[in-house]
Amino acid sequence: MMNENPADLAPELCVLIAAVLGLVNGLFLPRARQWRVAVICAAGLVAGLAAAGVAATRADLMAFDAFMIDPVTHVTRITVLGATLLVVALAAGQVRDHPRESEHYVLILLSALGTIVLGATSDLLVLVAAYLLASIPAYALAGFGKDAPGTEAALKYYLMGALLGVLMLGGVTLLYGVGRGTAYPTLRTAFADAPAGAVALGVVALLAGLLFKAGAVPGHFWVPDVTEGAPPAVAAYVTTVPKIGAVAALYRFGAETLPDGWAALVAVIAAATMTLGNLAAFGQDNVRRLLAYSTVGQAGYLLVPVAMAGRTDLAQPAVLYYVAAYAVTNAGAFAVVLAVRRDDLAGYTGLLRGSPLVGLSLVVCLLGLVGTPPTAVFVGKVLMFGAALDGGHAWLAVVAAANTVASVFYYLRWIVPLFGRRSPDAPPLRLARGASAVAVVAAVFSVALGIGSGIALTAP
Fold this sequence. Notes:
By secondary structure, this protein is mainly α.
């Protein structure tokens, strides 16, 4: 069923309208009142969440011949909007009274809008446009602090994104040539008679851009530098939100165009990504770099059900539940970093004694990233293992299990100091209230999603 009713894109329109209103208001508001733009952007995100919730109760349809409204889109919308709302709350305490405060919020919303479209489109041309919209504002956000680390991070982020984006565009061009169209259903039919080598080359080039957005091998090199050099709220954003759209786009492309020729390539990339991410995290003493390599490892786990697209019915629920669980849990961990305002592991010594709620939230989020019950990531990992086994890739499930066990050690390096006592000479902990509240909310949601997984997964 196809429709061309703009109301079908209500969540996206809410975000776009909020971004435009925020930009216009920022032009006329004095610096001390630019916080109102944050309120406008947050209101747009809340309105988008409400519209996405209503849309999720309706039948699937194709809007404007390119925008698929189905369970993948519903989860992408809700997860991106919810995670972006948490990031806006985190950023509000970081950029208050900044000369470009309003632009900061607007850039976040525009990038989030591109991320939603990235996961919802079923057309290669719209995919490229969404990639650019999701990427270009993020490059500006990475260098927003205008300091040396931020400038270096933004430059690396931009150069890698531009390089892999050009490869992606070349892949789209090649796939268009051999597939005689850009819509996924058209490509699926045409690929059956197209030269296998040309299709394979086009798919590999297309993967370059999407793997960059997901922070997966081989497009992961920007992740640690941007996470450490960018402002903390931006680091939380770029390691959480773009990954949602990229994983959804990868799953949709695999399921709708290449259900039989996709698994081996993506499975190898998934195994390499989770292994590299976890091994690189072991030696990190900077918590932001530790989280950066953790997100690379998590990208590997997320790619496991993507590799199983079209091979098992467990692939879709595994992708959707894991991506939502990861988003809220990773945002919670970064919120604690913003609350404590320390990047070294030693700076978290005694956090559980000084602030039990924030300390417990960090423990929940870190153990959640491991996949400890009853957190949401545990459910996502169970579904992920099931998808790999049911899809005939038991070896991939074994690699994922080994990496999960290995990841426990570097997360414990961060958790153990929380139970210690601070030195009498150490300065007292002074936590940012806003970020602390976001951390607690994210931890509660992580546990709630885990406990309520039965209801969520059995809902019609």
